[in-house]
Amino acid sequence: MLTQAAMTLTNVQRWAQRRTLQIASDRSGDGHTTVVPTAIRDAAKTKQYEVSVVDAFIQLGAQSFALHGSEAIWERPFPSGNRGRPIAVDVALFNAARSEESRLEFGEYSRRKLADDSRKLAGLPAADGLRVTNYLILWRLGPGPLRKTSNGWRDECVQAASAASRAGEYDVELRVASSQHVFVAAPNADTVADVGLFSVHLAGVDDVDEIDDL
Description:
With 214 residues, the protein is an alpha+beta fold.
């Protein structure tokens, strides 16, 4: 999947950055001193990783989007007229030929993340003159082996999608569950990226269902 390629690119870039910082710190002799609280550092790493993956996704997918007639908008806002930052989705793909807007949310997988973002997508306003499709692309990184990980990953995604659905309001459906090895710097490390592509269908809405761009 395109997302796994984006994760690999992000991992390589982050490893190179960490290596450069480590070399600089060794040369300065500061002993890797830091005053950043652990909780803040960990939260920042998670958010920064997500932003980096989305950025790489857009860059790597640019040609594919163009070939399918789609235009990507990052942080697509939904102005409410109220003060403060408006609600936004991570990426929106607009396709003139299909008169369609595809809304995508990304992030690290958890059942709560899937449920919360599904509810968010289902509650967003319609787009004037456009049909809307809603997707979530969620991932997790963990140790292999690949076969063991991939077998359990699909079952987890199916169960989580069913739990996140709301009868009479919207259905969450697993479209693709994929597992593959990704780059990590540690020697002999067997790290697998599990990625799930989910769609969110509103009850009573005849939405289109194109996933060629993803």
